[in-house]
Amino acid sequence: MSVLLTGQLVAAVLFGVGLYGALSQTNLVMIMMGVELMLGAAMLNVVFFWRYLHPEMYSGQMFMLVLMTVMAVEMAVGFGVATARFRAKGSVEMEEAGELRG
Amino acid sequence: MTATLVVFLAPLAAAVLSVLFGRVAAWLAASGALASGVAAAAILARTASGESWEASVEWLPGLSVSLSVTTLTALLGVTVATVAFFVLVYAVGYMAGETERTRFFASMSLFLAAMQALVLSGDWLSFLVAWEVMALASYLLIGHWHERGDARDAASRAFVTTRTADIGLYIAVFLLASTTGTTSMAAAAPGGPATALAGLLLLVAAATKAAQVPFQGWLAAAMAGPTPVSALLHSATLVAAGVLLMVRAFPLLPPGVLLVVGLVGGITTVVAGLTAVAQPDLKRLLAASTSSQLGLMLLALGAGSVAAAVFHLIAHAAMKSTLFLATGVFQRDRGSTAFRDLLGAGRDSRPAYLAFAVAGLALAGVPPLSGFWSKDAVLAAALASADAWILVPLGFAGSLLTGTYVARALRLLWRGETVVPGPRGGQAGIRSDAGGVWMRAGLLALGAGAAAVGLLARPLEELTAMTLPGGWGAVAMGLAAAALGLMGGWLLPARRLLGGLLPWAERGFVVGGGLAAFIVRPVQRLAMAIGGFDRSLHSLVGGAARFALALAARVSAVDVRLHRGVEGAADGALSVARLVQASDRDGIDALIAALARGTRELGRAGRRLQSGLVHRYLALTVAGFAALALIVTLVVFV
Amino acid sequence: MIQFLFVLLFGVAAIWFGVKVFTTASMMRSALALLFSMAALGALFMAAEAEFLGVLQLMMMATEMSIMALFMIMYMMSPGGLTPMEMTHQKRFSLVAGVVTALLIVSVAVSQFREPSAVAVAPAPDAQLRGLGGELLERSMLVFQAAGVTILVAMIATTAVAMRRHE
Predict the structure, then answer these.
(1) Which residues contact residue B585 at a Cβ distance below 8 angstroms, ignoring those fewer than 6 apart?
(2) Which candidate, B494, B498, B524, B476, places its Cα nearest to that of B164?
(3) Domain A3-89, CATH 1.10.287.3510 — does that match?
């Protein structure tokens, strides 16, 4: 069995789990955890592709760093929003966040 | 001139004022008559000095209405006014208890005015007018007690009879006017057949008015009126108008016509005298006597003497009116004028009987009463005339019969039918109350006149410049006739005198129903037929009107149906409109509304996507991305 | 071979901890589970001979998860999970979506897999470092700069959003 394939499979499952979590959780923090997982899965895929298809090109790793940046930025902004929301409403439950309902 | 007008205007004014001031009608009538008399005397005095004038008014170019005053006309005016005055005085008492006094006295005044106008008239037109007004007044007066059927019939009969005969008068006047070119009475006639015809026609009218044969029937029936009416109209004036007509027309008449006049008068004298002898009613006896005396006047005219006729007319006026007024007294006492009720009435009212006797004897021709002188003149004229052979016997017979019926009346009034003293009366004679006073006054005045007129013979001769015929032969005849007549009437009852003629005489020698059947009843039947025709016209018009109304009702019913039809059409149109509206509202509008609703629903459905919930958006994103990936995969890799 | 085993091991660990994130009632445990999952990922990186990236991943994730745990305790109702609450919605749909997506990716991976002809040799770690640094500062300088600016912007934005409003 190819390591690449294994890695890809793992990444796929992880992505599915992360998607499940992002869709099913009511709390914003939990949703962000789900997104984390999805991003992690994507990173895994990128790394394995670099290692087993083009290990000589470091742009793969570069891309991996970009993904990591995205992950960090996303978490920062998300927590800022959660803070603002918490201040306005007293909770970060997404079930109650229907103000933009139209 | 003024006096001339007053003569007939005074009674006319009295008549008009009586209508306005009914309570003093009697006073007005009497004063009207008095004024007329005074005025007539005034103009008589004027004419005595030889004057005569005309008062005329021109009403068409060339034609004028005029009053002609001569001694003759003035004298007649005085006579009429005098008799009228005393009769009116008498009437105040006679009509004392009556209710319709105003109408009576007004009609009497009207009559007097017309008579005076007739007497004074100077042309045929005013003569005709006065003639007709007199006939109208006569109708009103005869029928005064209009609730009585016989009075109504008598009035109609008198009016229709005289009116029919007036046709002759009208034709005669027309002939005269066309031949002479003027309506003046004084115009000289050209003579010839036209004038003769005119004269005969005038005779017809005069004879009818004067109740001559064959027109004498109406006078007897006219006795149904009040006695003053009989006294004034039907003894002295109205009937005398017939004689007056012939007197005025005398210059025009050719000798042949004069002969006819005389014959008519003579025959009437005898026939009417016989009738008088047979009458069972005192007033009817007097009526027949009037016809008889008028006949004598016409006989005198026919003999050629105007003076004799006029003198007898004046004397007769006084005598006959006295006789009638006395009859009125007996009527008031006994309640009727039939002889069987009046038997011995004379004993009960001796003053009245005295007056009656004086007048009656005067009428019979007993000297020195007035009748002697006038009868004498008539007989003398007859003797002197060209046709003495027929006129004298008739005149003698008439005088004889006069005496006969006068004596008969006197006998019946005093004694009754048998020569047995009648029962002593229980009544006190003439009533001593106020009415009686009036009656007595009028009666006695006229009675005196009846006695004394004879004395006026000479003065009147001088006045009128006419001579009365005289002669001992006439005197002898007159006396003989009077004596024979009086004795026969006093001693013998009517049955013995007349024998087989009695039934005929009682009925007045009516032939075949008389003029009543010939003229009066046909005229009345014609009037009724016309009335019926008029009624049928009315019903025709009514029927036409009803038909028109029915038509209108039908048309209106059709119209109502039309209206309903139109309304139904309108309703139909309205329901169509409502249908259209409903279809528009429910169909089209509903469609559009459904469209709008559908769009809104769509929008609302779309809004549900905008839940505001993050996880839903995420879910949508995932689903959408999955779909997209599928499509791409399929397109790229398959 | 060993590589394969390690990949498998750490892969399963990552998956297992990832599932644990969402199935545990306690928030604290969720955060820790996520940490361990990321750690497993880091380990995987190292197993794939991308040592620098693995270490980077481990370091970053440790810090991030700690912050997350902090925030979690700040904002969540029962961080200890002592009061069990149903904190999920549209669960069935999410399950289906997760499974379907996983299968999709698996199918694509499996169907397009081509065994590489020669197994590539990964450079030595210091060579990798040098190479990566060269890559960053030469070819991908713009990307590097952009990433830096982006981080700055994110820092400012977050601060701005999270600031307490004085009205």
Answers:
(1) none
(2) B524
(3) yes
What residues of A are in contact with residue C44 (Cβ under 8 Å)?
Answer: 7, 10, 44, 47
Q: How close, in Å, is residue C83 to chain A by CA atoms?
A: 15
Tally of CA atoms within 13 A in the half-sphere of B178 that contains its CB: 9
pLDDT in tens, B565-588: 999 999 999 999 999 988 888 888
Euclidean distance between CA atoms B110 and B105, whole angstroms: 8
Does a cis peptide bond (omega within 30 degrees of 0) precede residue C116?
no
| Alpha carbon distance, N-terminus to C-terminus of chain B | 162
Q: Name the nearest CA neighbour of B134 among B171, B109, B161, B104.
A: B109
Which of B615, B626, B633 is closest, CB to CB, to C101? B626
Q: What is the pLDDT of residues B355-374, one digit of tens each?
A: 888 888 888 888 878 888 88
Residue B214: asked if its preceding bond is cis (omega within 30°), the reply is yes
Using an 8 Å CB-CB cutoff, list chain C residues near B616: 90
Question: What gap in Å lies between CA B337 and CA B321, rounded to an integer?
Answer: 16
Report d(CA B540, CA C48) in Å as an integer.
143
Distances (CA, A) of B89 to B105, B439, B484, B541, C108: 11, 7, 36, 54, 169
Phi, psi (rounded to 5 degrees) for B123: -140, 160
Q: Are B58 and B64 in contact (CB under 8 A)?
A: yes
| Rounded-to-integer distance, Cα B365 and Cα B450, Å | 12
What are the tokens at B375?
A: 């009868």
**What are the CA-CA distances from residue B405 to residues B274, B398, B481 (Å)?**
8, 11, 12
Tell me if residue B59 falls in helix, strand or coil: strand
Mean pLDDT (chain B, rounded): 82
User: Which amino acid makes up residue B460?
Assistant: L
More confident residue, B601 or B413: B601
Within an 8 Å CB–CB cutoff, is residue A26 touching chain C? yes
DSSP string, B242-259: HHHHHHHHGGG--HHHHH
* Cα–Cα distance measured from residue B349 to residue B41, given in angstroms and rounded to the nearest whole number: 34
Measured at the CA of C143, the angle between CA C138 and CA C148, to 5 degrees, comes to: 110
- Are A101 and B610 inside 8 Å of each other by CB? yes
pLDDT in tens, B6-50: 788 888 888 888 888 877 778 888 888 888 888 888 888 877 777
Touching C: A residues 54-93, CB under 8 Å: 54-56, 58-59, 61-62, 64-66, 68-69, 71-73, 75-77, 79-84, 86-87, 91-92
The secondary structure of residue B632, as a DSSP letter, is: H
CB–CB contacts below 8 A, A to C = 238
Task: Please give the C-alpha separations between residue B575 and each of B563, B578, B581, B582, B587, in angstroms, as whole numbers.
Answer: 18, 5, 9, 10, 17
Q: What DSSP letter does each residue of B535-589 carry, written as one string?
A: HHHHHHHHHHHHHHHHHHHHHHHHHHHHHHHHHHHHHHHHHHHHHHHHIIIIIII
CA–CA gap between residue B180 and residue B199 (Å, rounded): 14
- Provide residues of B within 8 Å CB-CB of chain C: 615-616, 619, 622-623, 626, 629, 633
The residues, any chain, with a CB within 8 Å of residue B92's CB and separated by 6 or more, are B26, B30, B435, B438
Per domain, the residue ranges of chain A are: 3-89
CB neighbour list of residue C31: distance below 8 Å, 6 or more residues apart? A33, C65, C68, C69, C72
**Nearest to residue B373, comparing CAs of B451, B276, B295?**
B451
Rounded CA-CA distance A61/A54 in Å is: 11
User: Each residue of C35-64: pLDDT tens digit?
Assistant: 999 999 999 999 988 889 999 999 999 999
Beta carbons of B238 and B225 less than 8 angstroms apart: no
For B493-511, the pLDDT digits (tens) are 766 666 667 776 776 666 6
Structure-token pair, residue B454:
């004879």
